Amino acid sequence: MNPVNPESETGHDSGRPEHGTGRQEHDIRRATTVEEVLAAPELFDSTPYPEATRRFLAAPGHHMFLAYAPDAPPGIPVGFITGIEMLHPDKGVEMCLYELGVAEPYRRRGLATALIHTLLALSRDLDCYDMWVGVERDNDPALRAYRGTGAEEDGVCAVLVWELAG
Fold it and tell me: Where does the record place Basic and acidic residues bias (predicted)?
């Protein structure tokens, strides 16, 4: 069942407006091939590496959904979301919303919201106890999107990084 459009027999939305709302449905599909991810490199911070993409898609607990728009070139995603299940002995499983991206011309159409709801629905189906995301405090569009789907701040945290490559 598709969490964005439960009536979809194909596992994704039709792209047609919802009856009586004038609102565009969203065509959101689970990413299954390296080729479909590599079809839209501009959605990512850097061009995805084919081998890393293959490993991500094959890894248990790693999830990616792609959004398509009826006015975009066929087969080219206009948005994506990734989530990673995190398991700890004293907590259970939680979902980390790892990254979300929507191409500039397709922003403010509800795609980010639909992608977040898709990952939330999967998290519920997997019995995760919560879903969380790290976001820069000055990233107002991301904060609006996350808060608009029910996320609440969980306090202040510092992010510390060990640079291991190059």
Answer: 9-28
Q: Where are the domains of the chain?
A: 27-148
pLDDT digits (tens, 9 = 90+) for 46-56: 999 999 999 99
Q: Cα 107 to the chain's mean position, in Å? A: 14
For domain 27-148, the CATH architecture is 3-Layer(aba) Sandwich (3.40)
- As a whole number of angstroms, the distance between CA 64 and CA 30 comes to 6
Instruction: Map residue 94 onto helix, strand or coil.
Output: strand
3-state secondary structure of 64: strand
The whole model's pTM is what? 0.83
Confidence check: pLDDT of 21 > 70: no
Question: What is the tens place of the pLDDT at every residue in 27-36?
Answer: 999 999 999 9
What is the number of other CB atoms lying within 10 angstroms of the CB of residue 15?
Answer: 14
**CA–CA dist 131, 154 (Å, integer):** 12
DSSP H helices in 6-161: 34-38, 50-58, 111-125, 140-148
- Collapsed DSSP state (helix, strand, coil) of residue 37: helix
